């Protein structure tokens, strides 16, 4: 995306002095060189093609559910479940960051489609919570510290194994609750688009898949919408919680904030297809350059990891299983207690 700033500076971050700014500038030049020599297909095409393929597979999913054969039925559930997560997690995430297209108008259309129609969430609140707070104040306590993912009233097993099932039910309820804080016009639009998405899903199950009762259609909606809810919840907590947390008045410079406070998981094909590289194996790259598409995050990953390692800055990586056991064994410390603040002398 030539000419467009790659980074969204953390609000209030110190500018123009210190080694952090210079390092970030150096890294941005290297990444910008990769972006400049990449084609449209690499910058946006690959990810748009994955989303288009997911949309085009949806009819096959609904039609498979007509079958009496258990294997075909299971295939239909898997197709609809994976497509649901690709459209709602990968699609909504890229659309919220404006990473799908360089056109502002189309960015807005995709944002409303993926976030409100497909994900039953509010586009305004999604952008505020994710782009402004989580990206702007990564791991800053009380602002972008992933505390929305903490449910201290639940024990470790209930949280890790049962709580994910609440995601499809809670998402539209949280969205409706947040509507109190937005303008009436946006609230009416959000409510209309969320209802359209949910009703279309229900209607297709009754009229295309041949479900006879509302109960069975609703159960099928719930099953496909919670198919990848477990890894989705786990990945969201693995990426930041348990890493250094910062205080509001002494937060480090942006490059240190991202290098210390963000973790990459290894390449996990199904999760990367459905959630996008930027949420799985390229989360560090995504936090440094949030306007890059998933495919570009993967392309700049060697440049970013080499740079951070050469400058002796942390580049956090861990496996899904290692994080999973770590969270199960240190659940109280990570998910219940308030995390300790890491003070970095000279990096603020
Ligand atoms: Zn993001």
TrEMBL record:
GO terms for molecular function: oxidoreductase activity, acting on paired donors, with oxidation of a pair of donors resulting in the reduction of molecular oxygen to two molecules of water. InterPro entries: FA_desaturase_dom (IPR005804), Fatty_acid_desaturase (IPR012171). Signal peptide: none annotated. Keywords: Fatty acid biosynthesis, Fatty acid metabolism, Lipid biosynthesis, Lipid metabolism, Membrane, Transmembrane, Transmembrane helix. Pfam families: FA_desaturase. Residues 71-317 form the Fatty acid desaturase domain. GO terms for biological process: fatty acid biosynthetic process. One of its GO terms (cellular component) is membrane. The chain crosses the membrane at residues 44-63, 70-87, 157-176, 188-206. PANTHER family: FATTY ACID DESATURASE 2 (PTHR19353), FATTY ACID DESATURASE 6 (PTHR19353:SF13). This is Fatty acid desaturase 6. The gene is FADS6.
